[in-house]
Design a protein that fits this description.
The structure is a homodimer of 370-residue chains.
Chain A: E1 2-11, E2 14-20, E3 25-29, H1 36-48, E4 67-75, E5 81-89, E6 94-99, E7 102-104, E8 116-119, H2 125-128, H3 131-145, H4 147-171, H5 181-213, E9 220-225, H6 237-255, E10 266-271, E11 274-275, H7 276-279, H8 282-304, E12 309-313, H9 321-330, E13 337-341, E14 354-359, E15 362-365, H10 366-369
Parallel strand pairs in A: 3-13, 3-14, 8-12, 12-13
Antiparallel strand pairs in A: 1-2, 1-4, 4-5, 5-6, 6-7, 9-10, 10-11, 14-15
Amino acid sequence: MNLNKLELINFRNYDKQIINFSTNINLFYGGNSSGKTNIIEAIYYISTVKSFRCSEDIFLLKNDCDFFQISADITYENNINKKYCIEYNKINNKKNLKIDEKKIYRFNELIGKIPLVLFSPEHILLIKNEPQLRRKYIDNILINTDIEYYNLYNKFIKIVYQRNSILKLIKENKLNKKNIEVLNIQLKDLSIKIIEHRKKIIDNLNKIINLKLVEDDRKIELKYCIKKFDKINNDNLEIYFQDFFEKYIENEIVRCATLIGPHRDDIEIYLNDKLLKYYGSEGQQRLSCIILKLAEGLYIKEKLNVYPIVLLDDFTSELDETNKIFISKIFGNFKQIIITTTSKENIKNIRVDKCFFVENGRINDNEQDK
Amino acid sequence: MNLNKLELINFRNYDKQIINFSTNINLFYGGNSSGKTNIIEAIYYISTVKSFRCSEDIFLLKNDCDFFQISADITYENNINKKYCIEYNKINNKKNLKIDEKKIYRFNELIGKIPLVLFSPEHILLIKNEPQLRRKYIDNILINTDIEYYNLYNKFIKIVYQRNSILKLIKENKLNKKNIEVLNIQLKDLSIKIIEHRKKIIDNLNKIINLKLVEDDRKIELKYCIKKFDKINNDNLEIYFQDFFEKYIENEIVRCATLIGPHRDDIEIYLNDKLLKYYGSEGQQRLSCIILKLAEGLYIKEKLNVYPIVLLDDFTSELDETNKIFISKIFGNFKQIIITTTSKENIKNIRVDKCFFVENGRINDNEQDK
């Protein structure tokens, strides 16, 4: 898949901007606040109908403008062209989506049409932070590549929600413990299926990382951790869940919360058999995080048979030359890549196919200049 | 204040290392995972008796070692020398502290003895994240420079805790609403005092930032935001608190939580009158965050009449040349500064007094080599 052209109107610090991309490695360079990340954000927005930097569309508007528009020309592997366009209007706080000039009323028709992987500096929290972001990393890949998981996951979320409401009613003496038994069975069955899916993709990602991406003596490994409440030495999840419900139901009633299930699990990340979160240096954490993101890209490629666009916002920061080159070698696994950096010097040892100089919301396409 | 010498034994990736610092700008440079941040961490540890990267001391041990030791030689403004030494032992999971070879049994005797300010890459969350970190930024400066605030704050935390317990007992019908009235008055009085202290230091920081640190057309401004629950247009906090308790007591009882007070407030950060969190670029957020940290340093200097050590871990990442030079000009306000970076090229336009090349847990003092 290839993003040929991106057009922005009133988006962030851009008035009106047309960008023609190379099918390979594109570099956007320029000073702080020139507008580099805004390009990445616009591509992410047209793929997912949201920003990764803020939750409200109004912040994406250029000063005092009433609307913004993002359009993208895409060519797929089978040579079919598609034109996507999203417009946001401040006055009615609404978005309009068009595919090939035709108005589309359901946004989820766009989801999955422009697959991409994004690394932005704050993704380092994937390593540093609490389990939530790591679960999201795994779930997002699964949701975008496996419709069965998508349905399973939505069902699971609904059951947890229902179960918590029942726990609350039991606490208030409006229901008795018998009423939760059916939900317990559903929760257990769905949990086990979700855990199986997650373990399978983790196996896949481990293989992609250590057989395809990392060829030196580094070993990066993801491990699925089921949150266990006691030392019952039992790997049979069926029995573990059953025991859990019996033992902890009072605790769950007091807290009106479902304390067991994949919404509480973690994915631990190891570098050379040491927990990266505690033992890794800033550079190791950053490098590993970029590798996880690139592994996500290769997984999408294998599953959907489409090369996702790779967006790397300021990936060179905090990396030394050896590691920059290490990452750039992995680029060979992909087609279209879009990177940003403050200065061309930061990527002097990395091959780039097209350079764009960004200054104050204006983009100068170096290739055309020459 | 000046850190003359730091000695490490079995700390992170260091076996045994002695570092003699310059009284001005010290640079540690070297590849990823060479051990640069470990030096910053060791200095932070001897000042605060904890790490800023992990919560458990055991992670700070070099592979399979049973103990680590950090020693620091400090000279104060009045030419008095002090030697501090902390040893952690894995076997009994205990720390020993010595000042001038004399064993000290209360760790808080060390607090404030080695004032410092630290910027590390994850401090960017101060700008990006929820209010908690911004409150902590302000409270930490106050706690370390104002004993009155320290006492006030501890008292406040205790009252909130007590009040939440009483709310719980009211919910369980073990007490009635009358029982909370005394605590309401205490909470109100303490809250107002804390808010006044915070507003005053925010005024001070704004002056330091915009009169002393930022001399160009940028304007960085902190604003204190009291979390209000309705649009009662009343700036009289006495009355606002009273109205709140009357109106929201049922809500507080249901949630067993004190919903008003400085533990819920925020400090908004503006760049040129726009909210930095939503409108700022990555570079602007990072730059502003470093400036906030340096303002903290100048405030400490004004209050305690001691130059704090300035620790900047990888501050050049994501900054363009103009902004790097901008920050380095601010360095003139301080004495001892310790910075790290992956390559000397990143700071080619910044004056450095002593360079240390770091490789695999070994430090090569360039000045001695020449």
